[in-house]
Design a protein that fits this description.
Elements: E1 3-7, H1 11-22, E2 26-31, H2 37-45, E3 49-52, H3 57-60, E4 65-68, H4 77-84, E5 88-90, H5 92-97, E6 103-108, H6 113-126, E7 131-135, H7 141-147, E8 152-156, H8 159-163, E9 172-175, H9 190-197, E10 209-213, H10 217-225, E11 231-236, E12 244-248, E13 251-255, E14 259-264, H11 273-288, H12 293-302, E15 311-316, E16 319-323, H13 330-339, E17 344-348, H14 361-367, E18 368-374, H15 379-385, E19 391-395, H16 398-408, E20 414-417, H17 430-442
Parallel strand pairs: 1-2, 1-4, 2-3, 4-5, 6-8, 6-9, 7-8, 9-10, 10-11, 11-12, 16-20, 17-18, 17-20, 18-19
Antiparallel strand pairs: 12-13, 13-14, 15-16
Helix pairs in contact: 1-7, 6-11, 6-12, 11-12, 16-17
Subcellular location: Cytoplasm
EC number: 6.3.2.9
Keywords: ATP-binding, Cell cycle, Cell division, Cell shape, Cell wall biogenesis/degradation, Cytoplasm, Ligase, Nucleotide-binding, Peptidoglycan synthesis
Length: 444
Amino acid sequence: MKNLVVLGGGESGVGTAILGKQKGFNVFVSDKGAIADKYKKVLLHHNIDFEENQHTESKIFAADLVMKSPGIPDKVALIQELVSKQIKVVSEIEFTSEYTNATIVGITGSNGKTTTTMLVHYVLRKAGLDVGVGGNIGDSFAKQVAEKSFENYVLELSSFQLDGIENFNSHIAIITNITPDHLDRYEYNFDKYIDSKFRIVKNQTENDFLIYDADDEAIQNWLSNNKIKSKLVPFSMEKELEYGAFLRGDKIIMKLKTEDILMNVSELTLQGKHNTKNAMAASLAARLLKTRKETIAESLSDFEGVEHRLENVQKINGVQYINDSKATNVNAAFYALECMDNPTVWIVGGVDKGNDYSDLMPLVREKVKAIVCLGLDNQKIIDTFGSVVDVLVETAGAEEAVKVAHKISKKGDTVLLSPACASFDLFDSYEDRGNKFKQAVKNL
C-alpha cells in the first residue's frame, strides 16, 4: 500500500485525503496550524489519520507521494527537503486528474477568474451538461471526483495550483488577464508569474483550445515568444478578429465556424468592461462545447453574479453601499472604480502584496471624494493619495469604516469596499471581510 501524505487540512487537502483513501492509499494529513472542526469531522468520519499544529517529519518523509495545499510556498524548508529526497510533491488538481476522464475547462488569470468560472458553469448547466464546478471555489475537485464524478468540470485555477502540475490538462483553457499579483511568491519577478499562469497550456494538444484576452499585453508578449500546440481562441474589446469573440458597436460577435451576433452588451446582467470580457470568454468555452448560442445569450442575461464581487448591499438615505471585498489586488480595484458613476467614498487597504497604486491615480482623481483606510499599515495609501482626495481617514475594523463612510457620504454617493489588498491583517478571509462589511451596513 502506498503512502500518501497530505500537507494542509483545508478544502483541497481533505478532498485529496478522501479520494486517496478511496483509491487505496494509506493516507496521513498533516497541518502546521489548526484544522477547522468541519474538516476534522470529515477526516474522522472517513477514518483518516491526521495531525494538527505540527509536522511529524518521520511520518512525512515516509511518503511515496505528497500533495501540498496551494497555500504552502515551494520554498519552505519541508518542501525543499522532500524534493531533495526525491519524494514527489504534487498539487490537488494534478493528483485528482489521474482519476477522471472528464472534459475540463480550466480558468486562470489575475482577475475575473471566479466570475468567468461561475459563468461557464452556469451556461453549461443550463445547456443540460453534467457539470461540476471547483478548484478555488465550492467543493474541491478531488472530493467531487471521489463522490460525484461529473462528465465535465469547470475549475478555477490559481497560479499556485498550476505550479504543482505534471500531467494535468484542460481541454479548454482560459486566461482572463495577467497583471502583477502575488509577486511575493515569484521572487518579485513578473515574468515568473506569467510563466506560472501559462502552465495551464503545458499539456495541451492540437485538439485543445486556449481562450485568452487579445488586448492583454503580457499574454500577447508571451504568446509571440512561445509556441503552443493548442488552437488559439482570442477575444477583444478593441479590435475585430478573424476568429474568436469581439465587439462590433455594442454587439458581442462570435466568430468560430460561422460569424454570429451573440447579444447586445446592454443585455448582460453583469455590467462593466471587464465583465463583457468575462462574458466573451465564457461564451467561447460554451460554444466550443457545442452549446447553442441562444442558451448562452439567455444565461448571460440572467446570471446573478458572485458574492463579494461588486455586490450591491443596500441603499441608505440615497447612498449605495457596494461590497467588492474580493478585490484583493490593484487591478481588481481598478475595475471596480472604473464602474463607478457617482462620487465615491472608497474603503481600501489590508495586507499589501507589493502593490503599485499609481495606476489608480486617474480614476481616484476623477471619481473618489474620500478614502477610508481599512488596514493595519496604511502608509503607502496615505503617501499615494493623501494629496489627491479631500478626506482620508484611517479605521481599524469594518464597523468603524462603515460608520465613517456613512458620515462623510451624502445622497447620490456610493460607498465602495474594494480593498486592493489581502485581508489577513484584520480578517480571516476576503469573505469574512465582505460579510462584516455587509453586517455593518445593515446595522447603520
